[in-house]
Design goal:
There is one protein chain. A 9-stranded mixed beta sheet has the order 3-2-1-4-5-6-12-13-14, sandwiched between helices. The chain is globular. The protein is built from 10 helices and 14 strands. It binds ligand NAX. The site of ligand NAX has 29 residues, from α1.
């Protein structure tokens, strides 16, 4: 049996996305069938009992690769020696809560978590921020994890990316896996800009020409509001698809991918005239080892004005929490 062991920390471990993710990770979907896993499940102390239930279910699966499961609300323990971290936990918007209050309470959570990751995680740790507002939470986290290179911290845009690909596949009849060079710019919010002006059919190598009316009037708003559409049918927000996206995102960061991906990342040296101190989604390719390479796509069809709008929203979010940076 294998001697490889990885430590995986997960916040929001009593929540819905975590419940869809942990069993898949424990079965070997992230690190493969040759690596054992130590899980550290983290949530607030009120939910330790619920996390304990998740631990029991994990044990009941008798996964050959699952080495240990620890349940904790102590961040120093929870992030100890972590090789990779999924940050699903976040405070939801409560009744009567202003957007600014939501930003601020999450900023507090992510500044504390940033320090704990900095002090306790493996120095090569990879971190994905999923809890909303994911991009601004990632910025706060990064500012507080002073010894961790910002490129090791990313925010999740993969669900938006996969949604866009799937909708193009449905519209054109081309298999999903053959839709290439589709990606999403900006914030994980309703201002995000899904961009399908460069797509190709990998089977034929030919460009896929989409109707620009459909793109602007149907496709872009549908992707921007897809989260709300799911809630309107399920009564709950996306969980299994979000877990799937988080696992795919982390796997690509760990092992590399030749595809163009959408990754929320520190904008410090971007080529697109976006403010250089944000977490922003760019079209990206990951080398093995997770080095992020921004691609030089031309911005077409007036998408520039939408991209400026999503940047403006991120600047406003940053302004609202600037005292915590
Ligand atoms: P749930 O409400 O089911 O679970 C959230 C969990 O986080 C709860 O158990 C809560 O106790 C925990 N939590 C809160 N504060 C914490 C803290 N300080 N430390 C540790 N845990 C803490 O939400 P779920 O459906 O799992 O969604 C999790 C987050 O993902 C939400 O913020 C949601 O908005 C966000 N999403 C982000 C997506 C993205 O693409 N970036 C898509 C899916 C999802 O909407």
């Amino acid at each position: 049996m294998t001697n490889n062991v990885k430590n995986i920390s997960i916040t929001g471990a009593a929540g819905n996305i975590a419940y869809s993710a942990v069993f898949r990770i424990a079965s070997g979907e992230l690190y493969g069938k040759d690596t054992k896993i130590n899980f550290k499940l983290i949530d607030i102390s009120d939910f330790e009992k619920k996390m304990f239930g998740v631990k029991l279910e994990l044990l009941d699966c008798a996964f050959p690769l699952l080495n240990s499961v620890e349940v904790t609300s102590d961040l120093n323990k929870g992030f100890g020696d972590a090789d990779c971290i999924f940050l699903f936990g976040a405070k939801p918007r409560g009744k009567g809560m202003e957007r600014k209050d939501l930003l601020e309470s999450n900023a507090n959570i992510f500044s504390i978590q940033g320090k704990a990751i900095n002090d306790n995680a493996n120095k090569n740790v990879k971190v994905i921020v999923v809890g909303n507002p994911a991009n601004t939470n990632a910025l706060i986290l990064s500012k507080n994890a002073k010894n961790i290179n910002p490129s090791q911290i990313t925010s999740m845009m993969r669900l938006d990316h996969d949604r866009a690909k799937a909708l193009v596949a449905e519209k054109t009849g081309i298999e999903c896996s053959n839709v290439k060079n589709s990606f999403v710019w900006g914030n994980h919010s309703s201002t995000q800009v899904p961009d399908i002006t460069n797509i190709i059919n990998a089977a034929s190598g030919e460009s896929i020409i989409v109707d620009s009316d459909w793109m602007v009037n149907d496709f872009i708003p549908r992707i921007q509001k897809r989260g709300a559409e799911i809630i309107s049918y399920r009564g709950l927000s996306s969980a299994a698809s979000a877990a799937n996206a988080a696992i795919s995102h982390m796997k690509d960061l760990l092992f590399g991918s030749k595809d163009i991906l959408s990754v929320g990342q520190y904008s410090c040296d971007n080529k697109y005239d976006i403010d250089t101190d944000l977490f922003f989604s760019f079209p990206t390719n990951c080398s093995e080892g997770g080095h992020l390479i921004n691609y030089d796509f031309e911005i077409k069809n007036d998408l520039r004005k939408f991209i400026k709008e999503t940047e403006r929203e991120l600047l406003e979010e940053r302004d609202a929490i600037k005292h915590l940076l």
